[in-house]
Every structure is written in structure tokens, then in C-alpha cells.
Amino acid sequence: MELIFIRHGHGEHLKDYPNRLNTMHPSLTDYGKYQVTQLRNEIRINPDDLVLVSPTKRTIETAAILKNDMDFIISPLVGPRMFPQNPEFPILACDHILSKSEISNLYGVNNIMDYDLDCWVEGINRIEQDLFEVYAQHLLDWIVGESYNKTFIISHDGTITNYRILLGEKRLTRKDFLGEAGIYRINL
After folding, report:
1. Given a cut of 80, is residue 134 above it in pLDDT?
2. One Pfam family name from the record (predicted)?
């Protein structure tokens, strides 16, 4: 089974980097929408593929463009997670996740998966590494058990890097971030 990580396109919080990182719930910029539209021309997401999306505006907008309004699942288990993990770093406003009710009100989306875990306040951003690994492994085990040919995870650089490490990669740094509308593929 192929697991494909996709990083969202250029967001409003990056227009005046780093001064706008404390923008709450930034959307994609016009350029970010363009990047994702170009990406849609390079990859094929089939209706029977699994698509998991972080509960932020920019990732949901990315998914909507890539999926051509087909269904996808929103999960805080693929929400923003800082990398490297440092509990002393402040949580940036741009990394606050939307609540279930905000998601429903903004997008009418009811496909939410959280395994009834208590991770809707801060998401997975600041939880301890061992707890993140338990949650992430639970999600990966579920994905493998569902027998999809391809699973797409639309997320954030730090989250994708944390998952890549969990999947066995070594010595990753911020230099390994995918960048805007970047793709990383791995076979499970």
C-alpha cells in the first residue's frame, strides 16, 4: 500500500514570514491555490483512495482542490505538529486546529475521525512524543488494515517529518521539509 504525504499550498500566514505566523486559521493564498491546482495535474486521487486531512483551513482547502469535491476524512491525528518537538516553543496561532463544530459550520463536512481521543484542543502539536507515537501508530495500523491501494495524508511539514521518523527514517532535519504543495511517497 502506498502512503503519500502532501504538504498544503502557500498559506496566508506565510505572506510576511515570520511576522504573520500568529494569524489564526489562515487560508490558502491565490498562489497556494495555484500550486495545489498544478499538483492536481501531476497526481491522481481516485474516489476509492483514502484521503486524511489535518483540521486546518489551508489543508482542507488543499484537499478540496485535489479531490474535486470528493469525500475526504478530517482527523486531528494528522494535524500540525512542530518539528523539532520542543515543549518550550510557543504554539503559533496558525497551527491551532478548527473544532468539530467549526469544521461542520464552514465546510459541512461530517467525515471526522478521532477514535474518541481527547486531541481537539491542541491537536497533536504539543503532546509528548511517546503519546504521539501511540496515536500515530494506531492510525497507521488502521490505514493498513483498511486495505486501500493508496492513502493520502494532507498535512504540514512538521507533522509529515514526525510521521516519516515514526516510519523508520533517520536523521531528518528541517531541511527535509517538503515545502509548499510538496509530496513524499512511501510503501507500507
Report:
1. yes
2. His_Phos_1
